[in-house]
Design a protein that fits this description.
Pfam families: Lipoprotein_18. The chain is α+β, with helices and mostly antiparallel strands and about 170 residues long. It folds into 2 domains: about 50 residues; about 120 residues, 2-Layer Sandwich (TATA-Binding Protein), CATH 3.30.310.170. The chain has 4 helices and 6 strands. Strands 1-2-6-5-4-3 form a 6-stranded antiparallel beta sheet. Strand 1 and strand 2 form a beta hairpin. Helix 1 packs across helix 2 and helix 2 packs across helix 4. The protein is elongated and about 75 Å long. About 20% of the residues are buried.
Length: about 170
């Protein structure tokens, strides 16, 4: 970016002081980036709302470990994940979008809560989990890892398919 003939409001003299020009350039860059970020967020939100039901399937990663596959772009899943997890009794903690990690603490719901949700209890152990979210272009992978660093078993993973499908169907972007 290059500033041409910077002037202060209401004055005819050019601003030539390097620190003033640099300050102005910094402010303008921040304003531009803020505007672009706002447009990107709005676009992601509109995209997430256009995609209604998110299809969830069981799968495996490159090493054969169980993973969940959501048929929706990363940004859509990332935005809808917290409210969906909350419906399942998972309290969302730290989240890092660039690293695709979400810390969750699971506390099982009562049988009446599961009935109200319209899903079967996946019978996970209560405790802390790390959810690794992966970008697969038009799909997104979800891998739950327990506090000991071990991913869920295939049967636990399979039990989460219907539960997450139901939770996603009852949530929208906040």
């Amino acid at each position: 970016m290059k500033t041409l003939e910077l002037r202060q409001q209401g004055q005819t003299d050019k601003v030539t002081e390097p620190s003033e020009v640099q300050r102005y350039n910094g402010m303008m860059m921040n304003t531009i980036v803020e505007g672009l970020d706002k447009q990107d967020s709005l676009s992601s939100s509109q995209s997430a709302n256009r995609i209604g039901v998110l299809d969830v399937q069981s799968g495996a990663d490159d090493t054969g470990l169980p993973t969940l596959i959501v048929r929706a772009p990363y940004t859509v899943v990332w935005d809808r994940l917290p409210p969906a997890l909350e419906k399942l009794g998972m309290k969302v903690g730290d989240r890092s979008r660039p690293q695709g990690s979400v810390a969750v603490t699971y506390k099982s719901l009562s049988s009446s809560d599961w009935d109200a949700l319209g899903a079967k209890d996946p019978e996970l152990k209560e405790g802390d989990y790390k959810l690794q979210v992966g970008d697969l272009n038009n799909r997104t992978s979800l891998q739950f890892i327990d506090s000991k660093g071990k991913p869920l078993t295939q049967s636990q993973n399979d039990a989460l398919v219907a539960v997450l499908q139901t939770a996603f169907s009852k949530t929208s972007v906040k």
